[in-house]
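Q: My labmate handed me this sequence with no annotations at all. I'd like to see what the chain might look like in three dimensions before we decide whether it's worth expressing. Could you predict it?
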Amino acid sequence: MPKPYSSKMPTSSLKTKTISVYLRGKLFEFVSAPDVFSQSKIDKGTQLLIEKMDLTNSDRVLDLGCGIGVIGIVAASIISPNSKVVLTDINRRAINLTKSNLKKNYIKNAEARWGDLYEPIQGDKETFDIIVTNPPVSSGMKTVFQIIEEAPLHLTSQGSLQLVIRRGHNRVYEKLNNVFNTVLEIGKKAGYHVYKSLI
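A: Here is what I predict for the chain of 199 residues:
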């Protein structure tokens, strides 16, 4: 069974809390709530991905499965104000919180969209320089593999998929090498691995 944060419409009471955290040398505040990923703190995998993600030449960034928007919001604060970050999630509550967190952190070069995996960007034929994700391993490796397999369809010719993984990292590394020409490990800590894959 998927975790509640993979549900489209959580039904638990909305009891919000604010998380204050320094990421990439800046202070951020995020409103969180039950039935979203890592509801009480920023998990270690997400922190490592944020610390190690390479945002060079990033005019357009996709935060896939954004949760409350942590990765995408930090990315948007680093890249040029003229660049764009799109944040997507299947969880309606997560998307609503992400929209609140974009305003709370004064982020103007990003937008949140509701939908499953790449669905929110299918219609516009959008491509991105970077896709970043802490993939929903609890939803099954099939979902993680789908994220990897479909990523090249949504990347520019010089684009990269950057993800963090702990459980099943060997299988994920093998899948990345089957789909991408180059796979680099750009971070490793406490059992987590951050991979940057290029077409």
